[in-house]
């Protein structure tokens, strides 16, 4: 279980650009062994980029919950274990031809990557931390 973030940490991380957010997410997911999504009564919520339908993911509960406002105020942050992500989600997203929106900020800015790329980067990060 991850240590909760304080407001100063959240404010600092919210200033990161998309590449810094991606690196932060990879480190947090590997360290905490969980990745955060938002769900509603229909399942995982989605974002649409110009080219792709995406599943947004966050490194911490606090950032996922910050998105549960407005149209998404009925959504709940849900942690997925890293093992479950590797064993089910990567292939499921590929089969459904979905991309991943990496740690989008409040302006809906974030990198869009394909599930196999994300899986590879997570495994690379795990090797670095051993």
From TrEMBL:
It comes from Photobacterium jeanii. This is Phage-shock protein. InterPro entries: DUF2750. It holds the Pfam family DUF2750.
């Amino acid at each position: 279980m991850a240590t909760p973030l304080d407001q100063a940490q959240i404010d600092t991380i919210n200033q990161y650009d998309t590449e810094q957010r991606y690196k932060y997410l990879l480190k947090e997911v590997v360290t905490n062994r969980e990745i955060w999504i938002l769900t509603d009564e229909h399942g995982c919520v989605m974002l649409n980029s110009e080219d792709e339908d995406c599943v947004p993911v966050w490194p911490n509960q606090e950032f996922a919950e910050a998105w549960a406002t407005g149209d998404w105020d009925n959504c709940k942050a849900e942690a997925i274990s890293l093992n479950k992500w590797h064993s089910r989600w990567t292939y499921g997203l590929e089969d459904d031809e979905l991309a991943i929106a990496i740690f989008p900020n409040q302006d809906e800015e974030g990198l869009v990557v394909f599930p196999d790329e994300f899986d590879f980067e997570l495994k690379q990060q795990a090797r670095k931390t051993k």
